[in-house]
């Protein structure tokens, strides 16, 4: 399948990573469907975007079954097929366990697991008809290596569930040419958090520096190009998940 024929769904398209992914894939001649949480965020991004021809923006919550179904239908009508899901909307919460609430739990489950369940299930049904596809999930390295320094038990719970689903789906559909992988970033510098002191950097990275959005994008591009890598959770964390330091 030629790159210009591929259609990718990107959740949380309004985030720094989401915007960068939309631009990257459009520049590489993919059709892109971006999911936004509100019309305001969508319109704001459209004003920044030059290449709109191959871009379909939609607003809604991907953990809602009806919305996920409508999204798939719109994408297939517009572009003919959906080949790729990049699930970028998994929330993260750093909070001591005794202070977490049922609302915290439901927020993490909805954004990390239920939205992935809805979109991946519908996408896989379409991918089976079209003999293949790719699902890539952005998770977190803290599920690979929990830390006493960063209390985040509920996030570990949710993202470990995602990692399990990635591995299970990768095996279940390996013979159907569907590849399912995850990227697990560490702390990533963005325009929203550029002022980082050395003590904080030492806390989150043994590499004496934090990552960039481009580090994540290059990892996703690598997985998109490979038709053999399957069922992996790729750390992009400067060595954080390798162990204590």
TrEMBL record:
Database matches in InterPro entries: NAD(P)-bd_dom_sf, SDR, SDR_fam
UniProt xrefs under Gene3D superfamilies: NAD(P)-binding Rossmann-like Domain (3.40.50.720)
CDD domains named in the record: SDR_c (cd05233)
UniProt similarity note: Belongs to the short-chain dehydrogenases/reductases (SDR) family.
Name of this chain's protein: SDR family NAD(P)-dependent oxidoreductase
Species per Swiss-Prot/TrEMBL record: Morganella morganii
Lineage, opening ranks: Bacteria, Pseudomonadati, Pseudomonadota, Gammaproteobacteria, Enterobacterales
